[in-house]
Design brief:
With 322 residues, the protein is an alpha/beta fold. The chain has two domains: 5-140 and 260-303, Rossmann fold (3-Layer(aba) Sandwich); 141-257, Rossmann fold (3-Layer(aba) Sandwich), CATH 3.40.50. Helix content is 42%, strand content 19%. It is built from eleven helices and eleven strands. Helix 1 (18-31) runs parallel beside helix 9 and helix 5 packs across helix 6. The longest helix has 22 residues, at 141-162. Bound molecules: adenosine-5'-diphosphate and 6-O-phosphono-beta-D-fructofuranose. 6-O-phosphono-beta-D-fructofuranose binds next to loops.
């Protein structure tokens, strides 16, 4: 029997484009004759029964808004078997027969647990980190990268004016994607990422070389998960006489906010629509994904089994072009 009532939630770290995905789920679901419900504050709202009907009107004007109108949360209880069963009970109480979970790898693990309990779920990758496997891009990555790029350009202006070396820390948890891409498109003397441990001594050589060559600044991009970490790197460089004064900028949560780019709006819209199509086809336990330029789907189990690997060619390019 065809399903009639579905729900949508955004979970984990917010990412620009999540609203566009919610809009696509609500509008395409409604167009197919479904009743669509929004779950506020992710698994926390699910456990509290914070679930409300959404109409096309409720999502009007949100396609270009950052953050998520459904809000998001992290919830420890949902990681337990008991929490998951309580969540399932809430969904049954509301007569919900399928759900779209938009979020990062943790959120997708939560979705997988519901699928394993027999509840129809489709995941959509939403995280600025681009650490989710089996998809070329996640919702929010492109916007975050554009934000980082703008910050880099601004920092270079002041770095050159004062002849300084800047360490710029970018987000990404244990994944170096944002840092690596930022170094390729924004230019940096060196990028430090979790995937490739580095020696602090190398940095002194790079800075001295830049100074001797007459460069008027030196930019290092460090991913927050890199080893050694940001603090160690800054302290180490300040102890050495490297020609340049050293300054640190941690971009932090400003990378998560802001209006989604055209790319993210389109990606989120296509993914949201495809997620609803899959639920209507009776598919469950899959994540919508981007493969090349196509929007398709892949088992959530595979997507969360490992961190998305960096492209070796990009790593090589970063070395050649720095
Ligand atoms: P993200 O989705 O951005 O990776 P988290 O890793 O914090 O963010 O996960 C978001 C939420 O997903 C967690 O707070 C928790 O409620 C749920 N979650 C994470 N891992 C699991 C798991 N193994 N099983 C069930 N739920 C999980
Ligand atoms: O997963 C997205 C992300 O922004 C990571 O890049 C970062 O490590 C983490 O979330 C920060 O989480 P919080 O918002 O809880 O500080």
């Amino acid at each position: 029997m065809a399903i009639k009532r579905i729900a949508v939630m955004t979970s984990g770290g917010d990412a620009p484009g999540m609203n566009a995905a919610v809009r696509a789920v609500v509008r395409s679901g409604t167009a197919k004759g479904l009743e669509v419900y929004g779950i506020r504050q992710a698994y926390t709202g699910l456990l509290n029964g914070d679930i409300e009907r959404m109409t096309s009107r409720d999502v009007s004007g949100i396609i270009g808004e950052g953050g998520t109108i459904l809000q998001t949360a992290r919830n420890e209880e949902f990681k337990t078997d008991k929490g998951q069963k309580r969540g399932l009970r809430r969904l049954n109480e509301h007569g919900i027969e399928g759900m779209v979970v938009i979020g990062g790898d943790g959120s997708l693990r939560g979705a997988l647990s519901l699928h394993r309990l027999g509840f129809p779920v489709i995941g959509a990758p939403g995280s600025i980190d681009n650490d989710i496997s089996n998809t070329d891009m996640s919702i929010g990555v492109d916007t975050a990268l554009n934000t980082i790029l703008e910050a880099l350009d601004r920092i270079r202006d002041t770095a050159s004016s004062h002849e300084r070396a800047f360490i710029i820390e970018v987000m990404g948890r244990k994944c170096g994607y944002l840092a690596l891409m930022a170094s390729l498109i924004g230019g940096a003397e060196k990028v430090m990422i979790p995937e490739e441990p580095f020696e602090l001594g190398e940095l002194v050589e790079i800075i001295e070389d830049a100074y001797i060559k007459g460069k008027n600044h030196c930019i290092f991009i460090i991913a927050e998960g890199a080893q050694p970490g940001t603090r160690e790197t800054v302290d180490f460089l300040r102890k050495h006489d490297i020609g340049f004064e050293v300054r640190l900028t941690v971009l932090g949560h400003l990378q998560r906010g802001g209006r989604p780019t055209a790319f993210d709006r389109l990606l989120a819209t296509r993914m949201g629509v495809h997620a609803v199509e899959l639920l209507l086809e009776g598919v469950s336990g899959e994540m919508v994904c981007m493969a090349g330029s196509a929007i398709t789907h892949t088992p959530i189990e595979e997507a969360v089994s490992k961190q998305r690997a960096l492209n070796p060619r990009d790593l090589e390019l970063a070395k050649i072009l720095s």
